[in-house]
Specification:
This protein has 217 residues and is α/β, with parallel strands linked by helices. Helix content is 28%, strand content 31%. α2 (68-78) runs parallel beside α3. It starts with a strand and ends with a helix.
């Protein structure tokens, strides 16, 4: 089966030399792509330019992406290639920069633009604008594919994490969502519907469970 795996972080530019990104290394997505490849699947790995994981990558096709918009473009370009499954493990930046303001001593705000914002201006105020939800477009681009998303939750508890995963299934019409992060706790939860969660102790168990989803397709 032709599969797509996304991994690592997107970034959004502040100016020509500074970026907003996150701590994703790209390791889990890369190793999932390796696992699927060794099981006979043809894998395209879309990995963030800022991913720090340096381990081996066995995917047949590897492409680097930059911003959220760039990742969306690459996913749309792949949509016509008979893709059977998409595993969206990338950590997409939730925000991009909007306007940047300088506050005058009087308190008045003035918008500033520069290829490199100077620290000599003093403190600046940055507007953060939500980025488009990549996962929300997957069902439109891949109407017949198996779609798996991730939900990394920091605040709350396991119940909150599972609720967020179930909401993703409903909102984005995906087939499964992997819940993890400090809120979920140790390991992973593979959520396939309301009240349906398979607890998985570690990465090996997760990959095996994801492979089983492909065999149901």
């Amino acid at each position: 089966m032709n599969c797509v795996v996304t991994a690592g972080p997107t970034f959004e530019t502040l100016d020509n030399v500074r970026r907003l990104t996150n701590f994703s290394t790209g390791q889990l997505g890369t190793e999932l792509a390796n696992f699927l490849t060794t099981r006979g699947h043809t894998v395209t790995l879309l990995i963030g330019e800022q991913a720090t994981y340096g381990g081996p990558s066995a995917a047949q096709n590897i492409e680097r992406y930059t911003t959220t918009a760039n990742l969306m473009e690459k996913l749309q370009l792949l949509a016509g290639q008979n893709i059977g499954a998409v595993f969206h493990a990338a950590a997409v930046s939730d925000f991009r920069f909007g306007k940047i303001w300088l506050r005058a001593p009087s308190g008045e705000l003035s918008e500033i633009k520069s290829g490199k914002l100077s620290t000599r201006s003093g403190p600046l105020l940055a507007e953060l604008v939500p980025t488009p939800k990549v996962i929300a477009g997957l069902r439109t681009w891949y109407p017949t594919a198996r779609l798996v998303g991730w939900k990394f939750e920091v605040d709350g508890d396991g119940a909150n994490a599972l609720q967020a995963a179930e909401q993703q299934l409903q909102d984005c019409r995906t087939d499964a969502c992997v819940a993890n992060g400090p809120a979920y706790g140790t390991g992973f939860g593979l959520v396939t519907g309301a009240g349906r969660c398979t607890p998985l102790a570690g990465q090996s168990e997760l990959f095996t469970a994801l492979l089983a989803l492909l065999e149901l397709a």
